[in-house]
Amino acid sequence: MAILNLNDTEKVSAYQNFVREDPRGQVTQDPLWGELKANWGHVYVYHETSGQIDAVLTVLTVEAIPGKILGYAGRGPIGDISDIMLIKAMIREALEVLPDNVFLIRLDPEVAYSDELNDAYQAAGFVTRNRDIENMHGNIQPRKNVVLYYDGRGEGATPITNETELMTHFKRDYRNQIRRATKDGVTVTSGDTQADIQSFFETYVMMAAAQGITHRPIDYFLRMQKLWQGTGLFKVFLGHFEGQVIASGIGFSYGDEIWYMYAGSNRQYAKHYGPYAVQWEMLKWGLSLGKVEYDFGGVGDFVPTDGLYKFKHGFAYHDPHAEYIGELDWVVDEAGYQDYLKQFN
């Protein structure tokens, strides 16, 4: 067990390669994510077997309540989550170098919920936050996601090996809407340039305004573009119609998965189905890379009345619902922890 020395370029490269290539790798465990979160601190823990990294724990830190620090391992750790002794050892290693006013180390690995795993973490001293949290915003990351599985899971699903099979995996009306977008002249480009981000951001702001929600500033996305440009792990997809960008999406390629993370759209052009055309190209990207999963991101619940679910489900209606274990909290300061939880009540 060791703390990553960011001046050791060889070890940093090994850490990043593990996060990017392990089947359960996640962009939020890459040290680049720590650089993106400019106002957060960070510590990187890794475990080796026979000189090879086989588990990592990236913890980002921020003052979450006055005078006290939250340590958050977004979608981490990466490794054998069932080896709770290993996970606890990694947490202890992180706490050795973190400030004394850390009140919580929060994990939320992307692994399926099970009563067995939940009970095991509780027995090991963790507080688990999953099925008892009813609102999707009660967790930092949504716990229920819509996922398309290229390897063919779920009733009526078969492995997807080509674009024809991918298209027929969707609901019939979704296939028609993708074809309608093409017929109307919608085209989709992809790239990782500053110009791509600026075009994305215009539709992203439009969508946020239409939905009455807040949005991140453009500087956040420009930092993202600068950090990942040229890696092949990050792409901005833009749907064009008559000289206008009418829809967009940002995706990351880590491990066996494409993570569709951000999107935007101009509702004035809704009848041309730009978002469907963008999804089609993003899903083909995952297919071309031989991915196992395409993660559409979180939903409030797996019901048609949930707007997020309604759109995403049509692409993955054969696929089983992805319900993750949720947050595994290692509480260091109980009073601080209770103060922190009040904001979610």
From TrEMBL:
The keyword Manganese does not apply. Transmembrane segments: none annotated. InterPro entries: Acyl_CoA_acyltransferase, FEMABX, PG_Glycine_Bridge_Synth. The keyword Cytoplasm does not apply. Keywords: Acyltransferase, Cell shape, Cell wall biogenesis/degradation, Peptidoglycan synthesis, Transferase. Belongs to the FemABX family. This is Lipid II:glycine glycyltransferase FemX. It comes from Leuconostoc aquikimchii. The lineage of its organism: Bacteria, Bacillati, Bacillota, Bacilli, Lactobacillales.
